[in-house]
Amino acid sequence: MWDRKSLASVAQLSRSDIEEILSVASSFAREPRELCKGGILANIFFEPSTRTEKSFQAAMYRLGGQVITHKDAGSSREKGETKEDTIRILAGYADIAVIRDNEEGKMQAYSKIAGVPVINAGDGSNEHPTQTLLDMFTIMEQTGRLDGLKVAFVGDMKYSRTIHSLMRSLSKFDGNELYSVHAEGLSAPEKMKSMFKGSYPVSRMKEVLKGISPDVVYCNRVQKERLKGEGAECYTIDRDVMAVLPERCMIMDPLPRVGNISAEIDGDKRAAYFRQARNGVPVRMAVISMML
User: Fold this and answer.
1) Interval 1-21 mean pLDDT
2) Are 243 and 235 in contact (CB under 8 A)?
3) What pLDDT does residue 74 have?
4) Hey, which residues are catalytic here?
5) Could you tell me the domains of the chain?
6) pTM for this structure?
């Protein structure tokens, strides 16, 4: 049972917790309510962000609250201040803190020193819990279910925190089949490989996707900023690939896309990535309001 004091990992969430968050998000999508008037959210980002930072900001504004934002550039971090001290200071000005870090696995420690509820906005290549929640909200919105899905993950299985979190969350539901279509040298971490029903090289992407007939194709760019000597094999979802996918399939991507999805498919009804990004606001409204 989620204690709502922090959201550092999807491991904290049970199936019923996820379903409750998505239900609250659905109500906010229909009718935003200012449930956090007078509240202050601290966006503390030690790594660049566009969608995550801005959607948390929009979510808090829609809840009637205010936002203070920290980015390393131009801050006391350039003078040598530690991340821990930055968190202590900024969280002390706020009622809830959203933290993005380029290091893995430190969110629980940050939660203990912050003194307010902490939300993980991405920690290195580890996890990104609220991205997963908005991904699941988008899947539920289109398919009406989170059980019995065929999901093909395409791209960087090794360093993609969004893929790692979504895999772990989908495993809490029944009958889901997960497939890896990975770039060369970027297969999933060893501890996660057993979660896949099948694993294939991205060079066979079109053939493999045709054979799987997935409900969801979840793409992600190669995380070039995290590569440690591996190759950066690219792929592109284009009209030729779309031609072998079923009409029920949805194409998802946490964005930004960097050559991995062609703009020529943006008008295809199966392209869900922009809707997926918009869903970040009601989902993050739900998480914030439930933690305050």
Assistant:
1) 96
2) no
3) 55
4) 51-52, 79, 100, 128
5) 6-127+280-291 (3.40.50.1370), 130-278 (3.40.50.1370)
6) 0.93
